[in-house]
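Sync notes, pocket subgroup
Present: LS, DG
LS reminded everyone that the earlier model was apo-only. Rerun requested with zinc ion included. Inputs:
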Amino acid sequence: MPAHVPAEVRVDEQDIRLLPKAEVHVHLEGTFALVDLLTLAKENGVALPGPAATIFDVSTHDSFAMPEVTTGGTGRGVGGAGLTGFLRFLDWQCGLVRTPEQAARIAYSFAARQTTSGIRYSDVIVNPTHWSAWRGREVALMEALAAGLDEAEQDGLCVTGIAYSLLRTQTAPEAEQAVGALLERRPRRVVALSVDGDEKASGPTGEKFRAAFRLAEAGGLHRTVHAGESSGPDGVWDALDHLHAERIDHGVRSIEDEVLVRRLADEGIPLDLCPRSNITLGVYPDWASHPLPRLAAAGVRVTINTDDPAPLGCTLDEDWAVAAGVFGYDLTALAGFAAESIRASFADDDLKRDLLAELTDATEALTRSTTVPDPEPVP
Ligand code: ADE
Ligand code: ZN
C-alpha cells in the first residue's frame, strides 16, 4: 500500500458484498470458471489447450500466444499474450458452447457468480463472434442465454440485461444486419448494442458502425462502446461523436485529454473502468498509477468493474477492496460507487429505484455497526 494511504482505510470485503450494486462492464466470455471449461471440453470430447492449472495463462498455449505483441503487461497469466491473444482464447473457449442447454448453464453460472459479490444487476456484454457454433444463429444464442438468466432471476439471483456486442473488425453490413435481426426478433433481455475487441487491430469504428448504431438508437437500444483502452482519447471522441455512446467501456485514457475530460463531466457520460484488467493487459503498470481517482476528482462519473474476472482471477468485491486500500476510499465512498453503478446501468427505472433505496438502508446499517461509540464519561 502506498505511504499516502491512511492505515485505517481498509474496508472489509464482507461489507462490500453487502452493498447492493450493479456491474456494467463484464464480458460473459470472461466469466467461464475452470470447472465450466472442463465440463464443456468433456461434453464435446475436446482436449484442453494446456494444463488445467494454467489454462488462463494464455501466453503459455502455442495456439493463442502472440510472440510479436509487447504488451508491457504482467507477462504472466492472461496479460502475457496481450489483448489479441486473449481474444483468441475466448474464441476457443466459447466455441465449446454448442447447445442451448450449455448456453443457458453458462448464463445461470454467471448470475450466481455476480450474486456472490453482492451484484444485484448486471449489464453483461456478449459478443456472438466468439461463439462459433452460433454463427448465423446469433438471436438463438441470445434466447438460450436469456433462458438461463430468467431461471437465475426466478431463483433470486442477480438480474441481468445483455449488451449485444459487435466485434470491432466486423464490417458495416455485418453490423447493420445484426442490429436489424435484433430489432426484428427482439430477443428477451437484450438492452443495448456494444462494440468490443482490439482497437489497435482495427482503428476507429465510428464511421463504419454509425448506421448500425443509429438503427439501434431509433429502435430503443442503449449504446455502450469500448474505447480509450487500446486506443487513446481519440477512440472516445469517435464513440461519442459517431456512435452516440451513452457509456464508454474503459475510456480510461480520456485522462490524456483535458477537453475530453471536461466533455465527459459536463455531459454526464459514465466511464466503465476496469483497473485490474488495465494493469494485467499493460495499460498502466500498477493500481497506484491508475487514473480512476483523477477522473472522479475531475467530475467524471466512474464505475468500477472487472471486465473478464475469471481469466483475470478476480472478483468485484476484491477489486473494490483493493481500490479502497490504494485510493483511500472508505465505506461511504464505496457506497457512492455502488450508487453510481446502479444509476449508470441500463436496468429499468423501477429496479434502479428499489436498489438505490436498499443501498441507502444497507449503508446506514453498515455505518452504524462499524462506528465505535464514544467512551462513557468517567464519573
Ligand atoms: N473482450 C473481452 N475483453 C475485452 C477487453 N478487455 N477489451 C476489448 N474487448 C474485450
Ligand atoms: Zn471490456
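DG: Residues 13-370 form a domain with the TIM Barrel fold (CATH 3.20.20.140).
LS: The beta strands are 21-27, 119-126, 159-167, 190-196, 222-227, 247-250, 271-273, 302-304.
Action: DG to write up.
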